[in-house]
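Re: coenzyme A structure - here you go.
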Amino acid sequence: MAMPPTFVIRHITVADALPVRLDVLRRGTPSQDAAYDGDDEPHTTHIGATIGDRVVATSTWLIRPWQHDPATTAVQLRGMAVLDEMQNTGVGHALIDAGISHTYSVGARYVWAKARDSALYFYERCGFVIVGGQFTEPASGLPHHLVLFATVTA
Ligand SMILES: CC(C)(COP(=O)(O)OP(=O)(O)OC[C@H]1O[C@@H](n2cnc3c(N)ncnc32)[C@H](O)[C@@H]1OP(=O)(O)O)[C@@H](O)C(=O)NCCC(=O)NCCS
């Protein structure tokens, strides 16, 4: 059986991230705009997976408050996307691990995300918990839940 090619987790630019976001997250949705407020902020970090020069997965980590503890530093994960042919090969989990390390390095206590319901199991496998009820994101028209990873437990 052919093994999937080996990927490297590394920092990427927003220009690297945009085509992957568009392909994976905007395909078949009402919006073709894959840029986010804060993409260019100095504390925003884009972490991707590459095979050679090709970006095959992307994630973006922004300093944004967690709504239930707004006085504490927190990170929002956005744009979690793995190209179809690389899904279910551990790339997504590797990006989460790298993003959590980044979160510790900036002294943040929480990572949160608006997770598509179709990806909730993935987030739970990566240590996130679901918080609150379902809502629809306008950009995709898809059902979502908030998910939360706490770097320090009470
Ligand atoms: C969701 C996504 C980011 C996960 O990344 P991935 O590289 O495919 O996931 P991994 O291979 O790292 O899988 C990690 C775990 O999650 C599980 N998993 C991944 N996607 C899943 C899904 N859609 N449904 C159920 N389980 C899933 C895997 O089985 C694995 O479980 P295990 O640890 O028990 O083996 C990726 O599949 C993707 O880009 N999907 C389309 C876009 C999307 O939904 N993005 C998230 C928007 S919030």
